[in-house]
Automatic annotation (TrEMBL):
<keyword id="KW-0963">Cytoplasm</keyword>
<keyword id="KW-0067">ATP-binding</keyword>
<feature type="binding site">
    <location>
        <position position="40"/>
    </location>
    <ligand>
        <name>ATP</name>
    </ligand>
</feature>
<dbReference type="GO" id="GO:0000049">
    <property type="term" value="F:tRNA binding"/>
</dbReference>
<dbReference type="InterPro" id="IPR014729">
    <property type="entry name" value="Rossmann-like_a/b/a_fold"/>
</dbReference>
<feature type="active site" description="Cysteine persulfide intermediate">
    <location>
        <position position="208"/>
    </location>
</feature>
<dbReference type="InterPro" id="IPR046884">
    <property type="entry name" value="MnmA-like_central"/>
</dbReference>
<dbReference type="GO" id="GO:0103016">
    <property type="term" value="F:tRNA-uridine 2-sulfurtransferase activity"/>
</dbReference>
<keyword id="KW-0808">Transferase</keyword>
<feature type="site" description="Interaction with tRNA">
    <location>
        <position position="134"/>
    </location>
</feature>
<dbReference type="GO" id="GO:0005524">
    <property type="term" value="F:ATP binding"/>
</dbReference>
<dbReference type="InterPro" id="IPR004506">
    <property type="entry name" value="MnmA-like"/>
</dbReference>
<dbReference type="InterPro" id="IPR046885">
    <property type="entry name" value="MnmA-like_C"/>
</dbReference>
<feature type="region of interest" description="Interaction with tRNA">
    <location>
        <begin position="156"/>
        <end position="158"/>
    </location>
</feature>
<keyword id="KW-0819">tRNA processing</keyword>
<protein>
    <recommendedName>
        <fullName>tRNA-specific 2-thiouridylase MnmA</fullName>
        <ecNumber>2.8.1.13</ecNumber>
    </recommendedName>
</protein>
<feature type="binding site">
    <location>
        <position position="133"/>
    </location>
    <ligand>
        <name>ATP</name>
    </ligand>
</feature>
Length: 376
């Protein structure tokens, strides 16, 4: 073996039961690594079958992961992290909505479960890396540090939900799908060639712990009804709601307002106030945001240099990029201003900064500054 030959690693492959994680585990094994598959049991009451389930937390998913591991020829285990998942992801999700914010549970899961609880346990057992089916790339620099970059195929890039990973976590992360220019159809074809049963299995959707996709119903069962008013920007009551937690900034449908706006145009949710339990609605133009303040920044590798700098930013998992100027100020707040107004920005969401394809880091949006509108 030459000095520059790749080192054989002990790899723990997180296998959700889907096609991406199965192919990622297969590629890691094919590359010569010592791979062990593990399925994370995250639901305290998993559904037996996927009928009506849109996530990846069913008993059937664990069976699919086991069958894939058998085909690949690697050991397989199921680890119960349901209690940790409930505390760090589900309870946090409910509390954020109750506080009038819009969280992203996928980022929280990557930060607290897959690259914290799972990674810590893996390292304690002597593994070198955790492998997942995410589409992103880890680049090793000459100085030994690592950077997180977008996937080679932007159509499948998932770096946004990995923007919470720090330098230590990146040092033990492996994403075998991130540097290949292949379509999802080609990944499925590869799975079929490898004899993986999950080749034609549908992708999971939305929030894994809300099996039917009904977020409002899920929250209502846990938070109960809390009737309040739906008001316009002047404070005039337009209707009522059964819980402010059932709304998100930028929402248009399901407002249940009895009469149209005077200009005949749609109204959107502009603000959610848990203090007085009101939901404020208004025209689309009132959603325009020019700046925001974000808290709890996490840097993917080296932190940004001092002072304001220009980046691109992504504000949702499947959103586009926008040019921003960002600066970290005393107290750990990130001040961000946009070159052009953006819409649908809600407290609780994550903003992820990029320098080219490199993920600089992420932070949680705390407040937004809207564009001032001249009164008609």
């Amino acid at each position: 073996m030459t000095d520059d030959a790749p080192r054989r690693l002990r790899v723990l492959a997180a296998m959700s039961g889907g096609v991406d994680s199965a192919v990622a585990a297969a590629r890691a094994a094919e590359a010569g690594h010592d791979v062990t598959g593990v399925h994370l049991a995250l639901s305290e009451n998993p559904k037996s079958f996927r009928t009506g389930a849109r996530g990846c937390c069913t008993i059937e998913d664990s069976h699919d992961a086991r069958r894939a591991a058998d085909v690949i020829g690697i050991p397989f285990y199921v680890w119960d992290l349901a209690e940790r998942f409930r505390e760090d992801v589900v309870d946090d999700f409910i509390a954020e909505y109750e506080a009038g914010r819009t969280p992203n549970p996928c980022l929280r899961c990557n930060e607290k479960i897959k690259f914290a609880a799972l990674l810590d346990k893996a390292l304690a057992l002597g593994f070198d890396a955790v492998c997942t089916g995410h589409y992103a790339t880890v680049v090793l620099r000459e100085d030994g540090s690592r950077e997180l970059h977008r996937a080679s195929d932007m159509a499948k890039d998932q770096s946004y939900v990995l923007g919470v990973l720090d330098d230590r976590q990146l040092a033990h992360a492996m994403f075998p799908l991130g540097d290949t220019l292949t379509t999802k159809a080609e990944i499925r074809e590869e799975a079929a060639r490898r004899g993986l049963f999950v080749a034609k299995k549908p992708d999971s959707h939305d929030i894994c712990f809300i099996a039917d996709g009904d977020t409002q119903g899920f929250l209502a069962k846990r938070l109960g009804t809390a009737p309040g008013d739906i008001v316009d920007e002047s404070g005039a009551v337009l209707g009522t709601h059964e819980g402010a937690y059932g709304f998100t900034i930028g929402q248009r449908k399901g407002l249940r307002i009895g009469h149209p706006a005077s200009d005949g145009k749609p109204r959107y949710v502009l603000d959610i106030s848990p203090v007085d339990n009101t939901v404020t609605v208004g025209p689309a133009a009132s959603l325009d945001v020019m700046a925001l303040t974000a808290i709890r920044p996490r840097w993917c590798g080296r932190p940004p240099t001092a002072g304001p700098a220009t980046y691109t930013a992504q504000l949702r998992a499947h959103g586009g990029e926008t040019e921003v100027t960002a600066e970290l100020v005393d107290g750990g707040e990130l001040l961000v201003s946009f070159t052009e107004p953006v819409r649908g920005v809600a407290p609780g969401q994550a903003i992820v900064l990029y320098d080219g394809s490199r993920v600089v880091g992420s932070a949680t949006i705390a407040t937004t500054e809207r564009v001032a509108r001249a009164e008609a």
